[in-house]
Amino acid sequence: MDEDLDKMTREQLIAEAKRLRQGIREHRDCSGHDLCWHHPALWALLPDKSDPVPVVPEWPEFIRGCIKYRQSLDEQMPSAPRTDEPYDE
């Protein structure tokens, strides 16, 4: 699956590592409402191209998952800054 790396020069590997790090940083730096979004740009960093269609839970289960995720943020990051900024499309 990662045979392309075997053919890269040192310089190409460094450039690839920097590109991947930038993508990871962009994903890591998501905050606020952006935490909830589908992130195909992150997956697009991979050389194997696919466009996975997610299995989307029905609304009640989806909202339960959102609540569980938000609770995990309270548990794992209790001192993280909070905002009441509304969602803005």
Description:
With 89 residues, this protein is an all-alpha fold. Helix content is 51%, strand content 0%. The chain has one domain. It is elongated. 0% of the residues are buried. The longest helix has 19 residues, at 10-28. The model has no long low-confidence stretch (mean pLDDT 92). The N and C termini lie far apart (38 Å). It is built from four helices and no strands.
Quick overview:
The protein is an all-alpha fold and 89 residues long.
Secondary structure layout plus pairing:
Elements (H helix, E strand, L loop, with lengths): L2 H4 L3 H19 L11 H4 L15 H18 L13
Keywords:
89 residues, 4 helices, elongated
Average pLDDT score: 92
How many structurally independent domains?
A: 1
* DSSP helix fraction: 40-55%
Largest sheet: none
